[in-house]
Structures are given as structure tokens and as C-alpha cells.
Amino acid sequence: MSLKKIKINLKDKSCDIFIQGNIQTQIGRHLKEKKIGKKILIVTQNRIPVRFVETVKQSLLKSGFKVFTLTLPSGEQYKNLDSLLKIVNFAVKNKFERKDSFIALGGGVVSDLTGFAASIYYRGVNFICIPTTLLGMVDASIGGKTAINIKEGKNLVGTFYQPEAVFIDPTFLSTLPEKEFLIGMAEVIKYALLEKTSKTKFSKIPFFKYLKLNREKILSLDTKAVTNIIYYSALAKANIVSKDEKESNLRAILNLGHTFAHGIEQAYNYKAYTHGEAVSIGTCLASRLAAKHKLISEKEACSIIDLISEYGLPTTVKKPIKLNAILNSMLLDKKVENGKLKFILPYGSIGQVKIVNNIGLKEVRSLLK
Ligand SMILES: NC(=O)c1ccc[n+]([C@@H]2O[C@H](COP(=O)([O-])OP(=O)(O)OC[C@H]3O[C@@H](n4cnc5c(N)ncnc54)[C@H](O)[C@@H]3O)[C@@H](O)[C@H]2O)c1
Fold it and tell me: Alpha carbon 32 to chain centroid distance?
């Protein structure tokens, strides 16, 4: 497949996103053209196949870079202060300077962590992202949000720090467990529901319809279909971030399904549902809420729920439901104002959403039951 490029233009900085199968072998050549110093630290995780790390490393060595690798354990629990210090200490020990670079090679955990480290080490070194999960490719590596978790909550400490470049290689997905792939699909489906509001046209047919018609190809990792969905999703996120980097208004639409999702994840101690599963349930609840308020028709709400279910993602919380725990967690969310919850809801027709901020707790309770 030919190389696809997306550029995020921001006030202080721009970021190039490159998408191509096997681009892992060409990374050194692409980076040689950028002013990113001679020394590169690759931060990765132990479940990411070693051959991916080796290929990227060889490509950088061939282009004359001096390469160091730091492998951290896998898992959300390692997106913490300890891992951040490990990266920073490793860089100090190996005499990294301000002009040098950190590369994140992994999923969202590695990119959030390495991006944060890059933003604070020497008050900011170059940061490059090479996502290896679908979620990383369509979401976490794009937009410049970095974070670690602390015991009081997820993503509570972080920075906005744009990468110099993002290299997306869909062939990395061949080793990704199916469950992890579906976490990314929940976000891909979200972009279909934002197509009109994000002003990112997919093609002659709506992205929603493309996902409906190409389910088998996508789930069997057909190269063309998977590259198409990654390219479109990355473009949609890039367009949204270009217009609103710091989430003052438009970027908030990316939270479709997430108010419910955070409540559900937290109520079940992040154990019963993956993030993608919680987002899927959240998107179904948001669609039902929108239909109840006549923002979309019942038929449209059903088509959204059907698509989510066709991708093997859950559409409701399993019984018995921890209703009070979900509601309490939702109330702690940043999106609550004066006891009223704020939701992003489908509106008008599929592809369009709007912010609705007058939903009472009673209504949410009856929806969840
Ligand atoms: N910064 C943002 O804008 C943003 C957006 C969305 C999510 N996130 C963050 O992303 C994180 C979740 O990211 P994730 O879903 O990528 O999870 P993850 O980074 O934990 O990766 C999932 C698992 O897959 C393994 N893995 C990764 N690539 C693989 C591959 N190609 N083959 C085999 N195994 C592989 C990892 O080692 C890990 O065990 C969360 O911490 C979330 O907060 C950030």
C-alpha cells in the first residue's frame, strides 16, 4: 500500500502522521530528515514482540542514530510514577540531552507514559510515537495528551505534548490479541458517529455504512480495509485536534459514550469490562438516551446498537448491575455541573452529535436498569 500522510497543524507545532504497511523498516530514513538529535531511546513493553523492536532499532541504526532500548512490564498498572522515573533515570544515566529523542513503541500505555517523560525531561525532548495497538493507532498516539495514573485516579497527572511524528504500521496488528483489537474498534465506531460533526468525510458512502458492509474483512485484518479504517479514524481525530487542541469545545465530542464508560469501568474496579467494552455500552446508552429525547429516531438508535453488537462488543451492563456504584462514579466525573450530567449524544442523524448538559440522575438511573 502506498504511503498515506496526515498533518496536524497547531499554533506552536505541527505533527506528521505516516501510515503504511511495514513502515517499521523505513523509520530511520523518515526521521533522518528531521532535526531530532543523534540519540534515541525506544521505550517499549515486554508483551510487544521483540522482532518489532529489533526491526525499528535496525532501521534507526542504519540511518546513523545511536539507539537505546528500555523495556517495561505490560499493563495499565505500570502507567505510573515508578515507570516514569525509570525512563527519566535511564535517560540521565545514558546522558540524553535536550536535542535527543524518545520513541514510544507500544500501545496507549507506552505512548502516554513516554510522551509524559519526553515532555518533562530537560523541559522537553523530541517525542516520536509508533503505536502497536489499534487503540494507539486511532486514538492514543494522536492529539498530544500524555498521562500517568495515581492512586486517586486514572490520567490525573499529565501534559499536552505533541509528537514530532507518528508512524502507523498496520502489520503490527497481526500479533495483537482479538480482545485488544476490539478495544480499538469501539473508538473506530465512535468516529463513524462523529463523521458530520468532525467535518471529516469518509468517501461516497458514510463511514458508518462502510463499517457495516466490511465487518468480515476488518475483523479478519484485510490489509486494505484495516488501513482504510485507521486512516479515516486518524484523520478524524487529527481534524478535531487541529481545531481544538486543549479541549475547550469541539474536542469534547471525542467523549461520546465516555461519561457512562468511566462510571462503568470504575464501578467494576476496571476488572469486569475493558475500556472498549465500557465505551461500547456507553455509546449504546447515549443512543438510547438520544432516542428518548427525540434527538434521533428509535430506528437510528437501533442501527447504532446493532453495529456495535455485530463487532462482538457488549451493548448493556450484565446483570446484576452495580447501579449505585456506577451512578456515584459518574457523579465524580469532570463532566458534572450542578448535579446535572453532561453527555455527548447522537443528534439529527447518524454522524452528528451535540452536547446535552441537563440530564438528571433519575433519568440516568432508569436508563441503566
Ligand atoms: N493520550 C490519549 O489521547 C489516549 C487516548 C485513548 C487512550 N489512552 C490511554 O491508552 C491506554 C490504553 O492503550 P491500549 O489499549 O493500547 O493498551 P496497552 O498499551 O496496555 O496495550 C494492550 C496490551 O497489548 C500488548 N500489545 C501492544 N501491542 C501489541 C502487539 N502488536 N502485539 C501483541 N501485543 C501487543 C501490550 O503489551 C498490552 O499488554 C490507557 O492507559 C488509556 O488511558 C490515551
Answer: 27
